[in-house]
Amino acid sequence: MTRGNEVQIVHACTRGDTGGSPTAVCADGDYGDEQRRALPGTAGTSHAVFVRERADGSIGLRFFTAAGELPACGHGTVAALALHAHRTGTSRWRVRAGGRVFEGRCENEHGRLHASFHAGPVTLRDPDPRTTAAVAAALGTGPIRPRVAGIGRERLLVPLDDTDALAALAPDFDALRRACDAAGLLGCFTWAPAKGQSRYGARMFAPSIGVPEDAANANSTACLAAHLDAAITVDMGDALARPSTVTAAPAPHGAVRIGGTARIGDAPATLRWRP
């Protein structure tokens, strides 16, 4: 069955006025999950967000890649909040996503839409040594000392010495997918200190969810902020020529506040997609 609906591309977590992760945002309807999974490929994005306005004034979000539904998506939340603010002129809402209810905000800061919300709580633990070894082999690094971190789903945080080592990564994606699948991880968030106080570079590899490399991954940035117990700024997407920036800071009760700037793309298109 082919479906048609208005789809807006939002560039989430931009760096200045450029880059960001292109995200398809669509009003939810009577779609099946196979139809929802088909939208990212049709729209030419890695992720799609389906938005449902509820009678109580809250907005419900569901997140999909071509591989299936995600319980949470940070840059997808940034995209949805920015588009909702752009269209309604309001700046605060209750958001329902992944079984959670939380406050989302979006402010116009000098002509830029800056969205923020509370993610979390973040869980942290040590990985199984077999997972560590398999991921190191897939990444082509030497020994690593990662942590497993979770918001919705778990991922591996892998520290590297510097941003040169980060830029040089050329993972074996098939091997990385097998390692992540075996451990129940959605992917691998590699990170390194960058120039500037509390600033880091990062790359997110998530072949297990159909995204070899993500231009921006806000939830993984939140996981890193929880791991470091510090407010941080993370630059991503340079390897994809989509420079992106995400901020994150620990908040009360184990939560983390995520922030990102978004740019609304060209006029929305009515797309027809087939599962």
TrEMBL record:
<protein>
    <submittedName>
        <fullName>PhzF family phenazine biosynthesis protein</fullName>
    </submittedName>
</protein>
<dbReference type="Pfam" id="PF02567">
    <property type="entry name" value="PhzC-PhzF"/>
</dbReference>
<keyword id="KW-0413">Isomerase</keyword>
<dbReference type="GO" id="GO:0005737">
    <property type="term" value="C:cytoplasm"/>
</dbReference>
<dbReference type="GO" id="GO:0016853">
    <property type="term" value="F:isomerase activity"/>
</dbReference>
<dbReference type="InterPro" id="IPR003719">
    <property type="entry name" value="Phenazine_PhzF-like"/>
</dbReference>
<comment type="similarity">
    <text>Belongs to the PhzF family.</text>
</comment>
